[in-house]
C-alpha cells in the first residue's frame, strides 16, 4: 500500500473508524463454550481517536509507533500498523463475546488511502451487538497473527475488576534494535446496543528511552550502555477507558535484572557526533527509578562501558573503563508510560563519573479530527 500524504499526517489528530461489520450469524456461539447469544440487528461501530504519539526526526529503527503512517501502514517493512486485534467481554458474567478478531486498514488497488474493515481472510465480515448486556472492549496493535514479536500478552478478564495484561519487554540485540516492536492498546468499557459506537483511544503502555551525546573525547569508543536493577516483566490492570490522561502502572513479576544496549561505536568515526543521538529509542517497562532505600546501589543504575587511551600508561587493558550512576539522582524519579526520556550524556572529562541531564517529552499527537467510514 502507499503511505498517506505528509499533509494528512500533520493535520490529523484523531482518527475515527466507523466500522460496520458484515456476515456474522444472527445467533452465534461465542468462544470458550459460552451459551448461544441472541444478536440484535444493530452493527457494532468503532471510533478510534488516534493514539498517543509525537512526531520526531530522531532515528527510530525499532518499531515504535510515532506517526499516523506507522499506525495505518500494513506493509511488511513498516512498523506493525495497518491491522489490529479486537476482544470483547460481557460485563455481567465475564464471558468472551469477541475473541481476537482482526480489523484491517484496507487500501484498494490504485488508491492512496483506505478504510478499516473487520476481516477474516479471505472475507470481510460484520459484527452485531448482543440484544442485551454490556461489553468491555480491548484493541491492540500489531495484530496477534502478524508474526511480529509482542511485548504484551492478555491475562484474565474479571467482570468486577477488569482485564489483566502482562508485559515481557524485549531487550535490544543490536545498536539499532532492528527487531524491537512496540505494542499499543485501547480499552473501552460498559458499552451496549444503545450506544452503537465504541470509542477507542490508543495509548503507549511502555516507556521510550534514548541517549544523546553532549560531549566526549575524540576517539572514545562506547562499548555498551546497561540499565541495572531494572524490571522487564510485569502485570497491569485495565479497569477504565483509556484516554490521553491514562498512565499504565506495572507491577513487577520477576526479580531485578539488567538491560544491555550494545553500542560498539567510536566517536566521531562511526556517526556519533557531539549533540547527536546515540542509537534509537529503546522500550522499557515503566517503573520507579528510586527503590526507596538509602543505598543508591539499589536504584536503577545506568552503566557505561567505554574504551579510550588517556595516555596515562602503556597498558591497553587500562583503557577500558566502566562507570555507573543512579538514575534516581536526576530530575526524573520514575519512568511513566506514554513518555519519552532522552538522557544527555557528558563523557568529556577524565572524572570517574557519568554526568547527565534528562529531557522528557510526551507521546501525543497534534492535528485535526478526521472521520473514515469503515464497511
Key terms for this structure?
375 residues, mainly beta, six-stranded antiparallel β-sheet, four-stranded antiparallel β-sheet, 2 helices, 3% helix, elongated, disordered N terminus, disordered C terminus
Helices and strands in order:
Blueprint: H1 6-11, E1 12-19, E2 27-29, E3 36-43, E4 45-51, H2 68-72, E5 83-90, E6 96-106, E7 115-120, E8 123-124, E9 128-130, E10 135-141, E11 152-158, E12 162-168, E13 184-191, E14 197-202, E15 207-216, E16 221-230, E17 233-238, E18 251-252, E19 257-266, E20 277-284, E21 287-288, E22 301-307, E23 320-326, E24 334-335, E25 339-347, E26 355-362, E27 368-374
Parallel strand pairs: 1-27, 4-14, 15-25
Antiparallel strand pairs: 2-3, 3-9, 5-6, 5-10, 6-7, 7-8, 10-13, 11-12, 12-17, 15-20, 16-19, 16-22, 17-18, 21-24, 22-23, 25-26
Report on this structure.
The chain has 375 residues and is mostly beta strands. Helices cover 3% and strands 48% of the residues. The chain has helices spanning 6-11, 68-72; strands at residues 12-19, 27-29, 36-43, 45-51, 83-90, 96-106, 115-120, 123-124, 128-130, 135-141, 152-158, 162-168, 184-191, 197-202, 207-216, 221-230, 233-238, 251-252, 257-266, 277-284, 287-288, 301-307, 320-326, 334-335, 339-347, 355-362, 368-374. The strands form eight sheets. It has a six-stranded antiparallel beta sheet, with no helix packed on it. The chain has a four-stranded antiparallel beta sheet with strand order 11-12-17-18, with no helix packed on it. Strands 20-15-25-26 form a four-stranded mixed beta sheet, with no helix packed on it. The longest helix has 6 residues, at 6-11. Residues 1-34, 51-60 and 365-375 have low confidence and may be disordered.
